[in-house]
Amino acid sequence: MTRDEAMKLVKANVKNKNLIKHMIATEACMRELAKHFGEDEELWALTGLIHDVDYDKTSDDFSKHGVMGAEILEELGADDRIIYAVKSHTGSVETKSLMDKALFAVDPLTGLIVAAALMHPTKKLENVDTPFVMNRFKEKRFAAGANRDNIKTCENIGLSLEEFITISLKAMTSVADDLGL
Questions:
Q1: How many CB atoms lie within 10 A of CB 137?
Q2: What whole-number distance in Å separates Cα of residue 108 and Cα of residue 110?
């Protein structure tokens, strides 16, 4: 699957523009994490881009989220590693590979970083730094939907929270125009 094919799939299945932006942010973070670990950047980026492809279809029954996405991708003949990561990013099955674990941790982090950027006086990612995000991370009511426990699983891929935020912030800044930030 190429990026163009993946983006067509996303646009055909996801109507919420903010969710598409989240998927683009996740794509950028996964690419940067793959680069950090010396892994397949295209594979990881595609996984980030399409991880929520089933969200509109499963929004009324979250227990199906990821599972239905995996089924969609399987029907399209996607790489088995992508299929499994999409299924495991919701916690419905165990994360096994480094890519699975990275997606599980980065998925909620992108939302926290976007929320931090939106509360920054400039509303620009380029002006947000790791300490700023770390301070927001500690505020339990801030971006309450960004599961801190999931984000902290970055330790399972050998990164401290600060390192993880720094890598992800760099990645998201690289696609700031696409994110409107």
A1: 22
A2: 5
